[in-house]
């Protein structure tokens, strides 16, 4: 009989609340014969305050022995900025070599959009997850004095760029429109930019059916709001991907709906699935958090583990639920989770 | 009698066309007793193809002896990406220490906006112009091979950050809402981010009337499309400012309207004014280029040189012209320039 060993990191703020709904929908979606074993990890602000630890080696080691990780959200105003992000969230992405940070964006019918004219939006951003300015290569001198200098180094390797670019071509090739856009800033960041562009062009020769395109990151943001329908698959660096996917979420109904997967395609380490939103301490405990982004992240998780029909059922349930949402009658986190679970099992 | 010694760099593509209209409106706006002396510099793609030069020392030296520079646009597909940007445009910004890159955004009445609900947008981005990942500190090893590594270094100094942050506080303090938002990514780029945040907080103590706010750059893009009315003055780093100001232009009617000033507040070197848009080779020569961004850049130029009434007249002329624009009856570059010049002198 089949089984899924799932590590769960609820994290901070609304992370706890949305993860509970994600697990509810996951259980509802799984076939009877699949055994779901979950193990919860107490990581985040509470743990850091209690012990000073962000991600101890023992937890990291233990996390390895799972098929996947479901993460809620990390971060709290009581913890200095960067401590949990670098010490926990990014540490996981780097330690488990999550080089494909997959972030689909789709404007569902009936979902409120800030864009006039409600363009047809259905694209996916393949964000590099293990290089760029996220590597933590930087430092400061004479910190806190008027003579301070602080540097941040963006590191890009042909090895790292090629594997994510190849993954993006594969995804583009498997989609009906077969279109791939590289986003960078190669007119200013000439060294990293030329590496990305050269690898992009070279790997592209192996995918003659994929139409390609290049945009500077600044120009890309313009198209996100004026012509988002032009995008199919986008591949980009870690920082540009971070910025673009929040904007993508905003134009497709908000970060309450944006799902993501931090994927290690080789399977050497567990992949990790999480909503794009943060811990939103301002609404934690109010029942206002929308668990949909986490539920859609569960669909990405299932799809990654090979449960494609179950993933599709969750996506369909979300589409149906969104189609019937009434902005005048908001539901609680729990009610939305229940409704989605009911649709998935029903 | 008064005079303005203006250096003009029309540059590439539509740069030539929009600069002609900018000069037309400038002449119309200036008081009779002000003598306008212009000197045109042949810099850009044509010059590079002819001589291999981007910005020779002699031109740089000669440019210094002007009160201001008006620039059209730089860049052409026939020139490798980065050559003109780094060798000419950024070289000017760095050589003339243009540390305040000023980019106002305002949604004029009747201007088409991609945002539903047409929010009230009126903010200004103060983008740092001489540091960050734009400094050109980077390089690659084993270039073009599968073992390539390409780095880009973002350099940030307390000296550089403080002067631009102080300028932004001054601007915020002079505006009715007195609100200043710092945008960075201090949860990931911890060294640069902490420097920015510390300087921002410290300088803020001198401006008790200014309300302050901090946003990560990814979150800022969300607010640009969902709540742009929340912004008054934004201060940010060179790269984040580049990205945010294109997005700001997009939500306020497009880059055809977005003006900018590369300002050296000390006056040691001439400041440079340019539309945010590029050379748009696809529409060069068609008469479709909108010169309004350049005309508004001329208003920034006049304001910088102390001709505030004349600047206000140009801004009013643009507002009136936009209010009467008819999307069904587009005018040529020249017609728009004529209409604006007529309003300004009339
Ligand atoms: C919390 C932060 C470190 C993270 C990132 O920058 O990657 C978040 O913004 C995201 O997009 O997942
Ligand atoms: C052309 C390019 C170098 C420039 C920049 O990145 O600053 C442009 O995008 C701008 O915003 O003025």
Automatic annotation (TrEMBL), chains A, B:
Superkingdom of origin: Bacteria
Main subcellular location: cytoplasm
Note on how the cofactor is bound: Binds 1 Mg(2+) or Mn(2+) ion per subunit.
Cofactor: Mg(2+); Mn(2+)
Residues reported to bind Mg(2+): 218, 242, 246
Pfam families: Iso_dh
Listed InterPro entries: ICDH/IPMDH, IsoCit/isopropylmalate_DH_CS, IsoPropMal-DH-like_dom, LeuB_actb
Binding site for NAD(+): 278-290
Marked site positions, Important for catalysis: 134, 185
EC number: 1.1.1.85
Amino acids binding substrate: 93, 103, 127, 218
One Gene Ontology term of the molecular function aspect: 3-isopropylmalate dehydrogenase activity
Annotated metabolic or biological route of this protein: Amino-acid biosynthesis; L-leucine biosynthesis; L-leucine from 3-methyl-2-oxobutanoate: step 3/4
Family to which the UniProt record says this protein belongs: Belongs to the isocitrate and isopropylmalate dehydrogenases family. LeuB type 2 subfamily.
NCBIfam families tied to this protein: PRK03437.1
Biological role stated in the UniProt entry: Catalyzes the oxidation of 3-carboxy-2-hydroxy-4-methylpentanoate (3-isopropylmalate) to 3-carboxy-4-methyl-2-oxopentanoate. The product decarboxylates to 4-methyl-2 oxopentanoate.
Subunit details: Homodimer.
Name of the featured protein: 3-isopropylmalate dehydrogenase
Organism: Streptomyces luomodiensis
Gene: leuB
């Amino acid at each position: 009989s089949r089984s899924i060993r799932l590590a769960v990191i609820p994290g901070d703020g609304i992370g706890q609340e949305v993860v509970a709904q994600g697990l509810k929908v996951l259980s509802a979606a799984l076939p009877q014969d699949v055994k779901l074993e979950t193990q919860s990890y107490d990581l985040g602000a509470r743990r850091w305050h209690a012990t000073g630890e962000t991600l101890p080696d023992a937890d990291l080691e233990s996390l390895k022995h799972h098929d996947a990780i479901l993460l809620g959200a990390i971060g709290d105003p009581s913890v200095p900025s960067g401590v949990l992000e670098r010490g926990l969230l990014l540490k996981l992405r780097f330690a488990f070599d999550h080089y494909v940070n997959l972030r689909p964006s789709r404007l569902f019918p009936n979902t409120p959009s800030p864009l006039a004219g409600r363009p047809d939006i259905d694209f996916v951003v393949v964000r590099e997850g293990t290089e760029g300015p996220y590597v933590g290569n930087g430092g400061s001198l004479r910190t806190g004095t008027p003579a301070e200098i602080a540097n941040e180094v963006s590191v890009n390797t042909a090895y790292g760029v090629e594997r994510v670019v190849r993954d993006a071509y594969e995804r583009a090739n498997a989609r009906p429109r077969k279109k791939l856009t590289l986003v960078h800033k190669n007119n200013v960041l000439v060294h990293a930019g030329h590496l990305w562009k050269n690898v992009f062009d070279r790997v592209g020769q192996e995918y003659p059916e994929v139409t390609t395109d290049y945009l500077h990151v600044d120009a890309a943001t313009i198209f996100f709001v004026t012509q988002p329908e032009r995008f199919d698959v986008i591949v980009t660096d870690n920082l540009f991907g971070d910025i673009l996917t929040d904007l993508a979420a905003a134009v497709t109904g908000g970060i309450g709906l944006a799902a993501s997967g931090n994927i290690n395609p080789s399977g050497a380490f567990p992949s990790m699935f999480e909503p794009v939103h943060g811990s939103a301490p301002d609404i934690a405990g109010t029942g206002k958090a929308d668990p949909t982004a986490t539920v859609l992240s569960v669909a990405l998780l299932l799809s990654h583990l090979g449960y494609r029909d179950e993933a599709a059922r969750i996506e369909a349930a979300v589409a149906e639920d969104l189609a019937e949402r009434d902005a005048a009658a908001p539901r609680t986190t729990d009610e939305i989770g229940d409704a989605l679970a009911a649709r998935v099992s029903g």
